[in-house]
Structure formats: structure tokens, C-alpha cells
Amino acid sequence: MSTTKQTTDDLRTNVLEFALGENRYCVDIGYIAEIVDTADLTAVPNTADHVEGVMDLRGETTKIVNLRKIFGEDDGETLGSRIIVFKRKQDSKERIGWLADEVNQVREIQLQEVDTSVEGDGIAGVIRRDDDFVLWINPTDVRV
């Protein structure tokens, strides 16, 4: 009987890369239910500033969150054209979508590529891409 030892070098995952303004972000695709175009949003009074409103997504009310405001990148004018809708947590009835300017692609990454020394609310790490960086977001750590 042989045993295979799996090292960090072998661990891979798929992430969805997306843009908010000039910055690129990614999130593990295991959290994502679907990606939809931004439709008419209904504003909800007395909600947090980063909540842009709600929308009807196949008969379900979905709260739409502006990550630009959460991450302090809000230019006050632009709403993203795409919405990344997340799978519902087992203990939650709330369905959430994040506004994104652009959804780029799904990429496979090796976990050893992720620099976890960078700390920030919701930021799980940083991945170097050519001459740029992609910030890896852990959606369970983002306060929405």
C-alpha cells in the first residue's frame, strides 16, 4: 500500500478574476452561484452605504453590494455592469451579489502563488500577475 503525501506545492484551486476600477480581484469559484448583468436595482432606505439595493433574481430577492465602497475605492459615479452572485450559506436566507466592473476569467492557481502576508479586511492574499497584482478575496470575511 502506497501513500501519497500532498504538499502545498500540489494544492490548486480555481478563482474568478474580476475588476473594480483599476484593481483586479479574485474569489474562489466554489463560492459563486452565477454571474448576471446589472439590472434595475431597487434602493432600500436606511441600509448601509455599501448596499446599492435589491433585485429580483429568478423570484428571489438578492441584496446587491458595492465592493468599491467597502474597499474605499468608490468614485461616487460608477456602478459595475456585472453582478457576482454568491451561493447562500446553509444557515442564511439572504442572497448576496457583488457589483463588478468587469468579470475576466476563471484561472487555476497554485496555492503557493498566494502571498498571505498582506493583511486587510476580506483580503486572503495577493497573487502576482506579470507586472500587476490580483487581490484574493475571501467572501466570508467581507462585512456586507
What's the SSE blueprint?
Elements: E1 12-20, E2 23-28, E3 32-37, E4 51-57, E5 60-65, H1 67-70, E6 82-86, E7 95-100, E8 102-110, E9 114-115, E10 123-129, E11 132-137
Parallel strand pairs: 2-11, 5-7
Antiparallel strand pairs: 1-2, 1-8, 3-6, 4-5, 6-7, 9-10, 10-11
Provide a descriptive summary of the structure in words.
With 144 residues, the protein is mainly β. The protein has one domain: CheA-289, Domain 4 (OB fold (Dihydrolipoamide Acetyltransferase, E2P), Beta Barrel), CATH 2.40.50.180. The protein is 3% helix and 48% strand. It has one helix at 67-70, and strands spanning 12-20, 23-28, 32-37, 51-57, 60-65, 82-86, 95-100, 102-110, 114-115, 123-129, 132-137. A hairpin with an 8-residue loop joins strand 6 and strand 7 (95-100). The chain is globular.
Task: Explain briefly what this protein structure is.
With 144 residues, the protein is mostly beta strands.
In N-to-C order, the SSE pattern is EEEEEHEEEEEE
Total beta-strand segments: 11
What structural class should be given to the helix and strand makeup? mainly beta
Strand content: over 45%
- Strands of the widest sheet, in order across it, are 8-1-2-11-10-9
The number of distinct structural domains comes to: 1
Helix content: under 10%
Q: What is the CATH class?
A: Mainly Beta
Mean pLDDT: 86
What is the CATH third-level topology name? OB fold (Dihydrolipoamide Acetyltransferase, E2P)
CATH architecture field: Beta Barrel
The named CATH superfamily:
CheA-289, Domain 4
Rg, Å, rounded: 17 Å
GO biological process, one term: chemotaxis
Organism: Natronobacterium gregoryi (strain ATCC 43098 / DSM 3393 / CCM 3738 / CIP 104747 / IAM 13177 / JCM 8860 / NBRC 102187 / NCIMB 2189 / SP2)
Pfam families: CheW
InterPro entries: CheW (IPR039315), CheW-like_dom_sf (IPR036061), CheW-lke_dom (IPR002545)
